[in-house]
């Protein structure tokens, strides 16, 4: 993701007003900004609260904020005041998209709700990211990533089988909500080409958390059994889990019989592939513990990274378990352009690779600016 001309990008010419804070909305708008959209991030006078979510800090700004707010212009605006509301309306006059994550009812109270704005700006695409939406049993209530993980079943299937329900170690619900919001915006922009009209996009953490329940939801629908925790083991596939080696854990993700035969070949254990207990995936699942014991004995003399490389090259999905610093320093990370560096700025690059209009780094995350873009 090398720097390009300011007008480069698949979304060049698209103007986005970003009123969102914290993670889901800002992650969405960073995706749009990376691909050329002109994103104006408007913060309340005190700033996005994640500016203080540190240490670590880059200058006076927490790394948390820096991580999801590049390629945006910035300004502050007090939308609770009439002057701030009028300035926002002025900014929306030539905007394509409005992204916000206010509690439902807040913008409506200020005369800035979708039903009001669409009368004045019929082409505006208004994307709201919220916890639960505006109506229903939980409508209008605040939502947070960890609470969505707990409420929507994610924690119940995460963790060791004999341990407690565990939060996924990153804000996966916030981030997939941001991804879904970006997809929704692109869908609406495409539809607007035909209709000439904007629309309201209702993206909630609750819905997005439920959408992540694969394969647990379909397993429940068709078995009637409530899914539980299985640690790193897959509920439907074996071997598909971490196993110990001489140098640390390795993850084996053996999805079919051919891969299992290749695993046995690389481990120089042909009897493994002909053992009737392991003939097919259903057999391997039925004898999961015996398979784990046999594999652990074979892996005990191997180095995790070296073996993972051999297995991958033999067509068997496998990986040594790496720490964050190791993953970011990996040669393939550099090859894929997944770490961006400019001056004191370092960030994770865009995973969305387009051949003619690639993502670019055009602006560093904005400082907390006065009320002018």
UniProtKB/TrEMBL annotation:
The keyword Membrane does not apply. One of its GO terms (molecular function) is transferase activity. The keyword RNA-binding does not apply. Pfam families: CoA_transf_3 (PF02515). InterPro entries: CoA-transferase_III_domain, CoA-Trfase_fam_III, CoA-Trfase_III_dom3_sf, CoA-Trfase_III_dom_1_sf. Keywords: Transferase. Gene3D superfamilies: Crotonobetainyl-coa:carnitine coa-transferase, domain 1, formyl-coa transferase, domain 3. Residues 349-373 are annotated as: Disordered. This is Acetyl-CoA:oxalate CoA-transferase. The gene is yfdE_2.
